[in-house]
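Problem 12. The chain below contains 449 residues. Write out its predicted structure in token notation.
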Amino acid sequence: MSDFNAYEAWMTECNVCAQEASHFCPRCEKVWYCSQECQRYDWQVHRHLCSSDSQLYPVKDPTKPSRRAIYFPEHGGRPTFVEVPFETWDEGYDISLHWERLGNEPIFRKEWIVQNIEVDKNPITGRDLGYQLLVGIKDDAMQDPKYKPNKCIKGLNFTSSHIPHSWPGPLRAVKVAPKSPMLDSHPRYLDIEIGDLRHLVDFFLVYGLSGAALEETVFQLRMGLPALPEELDEDLLGESWDSAPASPSSALHSPTPQLPTIWGITLYCKGDQAQLNVPPYDVKEITLQEAQVHNLQNWPVFDITQLIGLPIQYRRIPTSIRNLENPFWSPDNEAALLLQLDPKTGEVPERWKKDSGTWVIVRQDGRQLYPEHLEALVAFVKQHLVPLFEEWRGKDTNASVGTRKVDGEMTKERFLEWFEGYRREKLQRLKDEEGFISEKWISPFDVPT
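Solution.
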């Protein structure tokens, strides 16, 4: 991706009702709203953390990996942001070997066992968060009389009803990225945001209720959307609102704005093609949230694609143990191996030869990767570059890297020249076939952004 700030663009939805938002809090500049009503309503919660942008989040120590969390002190006061250290392991290119473990400090003692309660939906609005919030509490705090009900949680209550659960001891809330359908991975921690306090407070208002009591409480809270407290400083409303505000109560079931996407390709191995009944190249929709979760900006690039000016990033999908033990399942993936060709030696790295498997690949510039362009790229390597590497190995091994004939062919100009010939042949042969789309055979460098 050329600009990962785009990840935050889809987050400009109202923090209360999830409608498309047009204004943000002018103090912290982090939370968006669709109307003055929703901003006033949220202020009852938002004010506990809101401050100027430069003072909002604690400064991270670049030498100590950490994730931002929200701390709810046991003896009262306001919730605060804290940095929680975490450890990570990442072995090779296999995403299944990436692990993250969050530490207990500075909120809990190192030896404590922390019980986490998952929150993936706002219980009042029914809004799916698209990630998980984990509310952490000492595992035996409920049974230990020395831990008293958390006064900070109690102080967040802006309703006439009481918080149904006592929440003894200190509490911590952290944010976890969802497991992606693109790549199944272990949980990954994200920095919690100020807007997440809204969902946590709504969770505290109903946790511990069930049956009719839960239904009645949720109904009453929904009926109160949006309340209009007067204590909100009018300066915090920001610039004037040009249009009449929409009612958040009528927007509870409005569809969430569609996330921007990156269009890549899943490059299936033979075994997965047969098992899943899929083609070798399958167009893959990847949300920008998935891209951030799986650290797409740091995915490696196929060396040859970098040389020809069309850098393609890749990530291998881990092969299940069941498939590896199946004698009829094949991990062979010729296209992936060809793209992995080392431009210096013309050989495939040893680690991919026995278990190439299935891959997800995307264009580094964020443009859509057409299957037609991938097909041409693989053919360019197989039909044009491989014979030149073989010629070099057989006849001209004394030629140094950079002076060989094959080196002169791994350029943008030579690839484009070769692509034009390949494209003309394809257009001539496929033009009468049903479903043929000639626009997909434009130059890969002319794909619109």
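Discussion. The longest helix spans residues 371-395. Students who got a different answer should revisit the alignment rule from Section 12.3.
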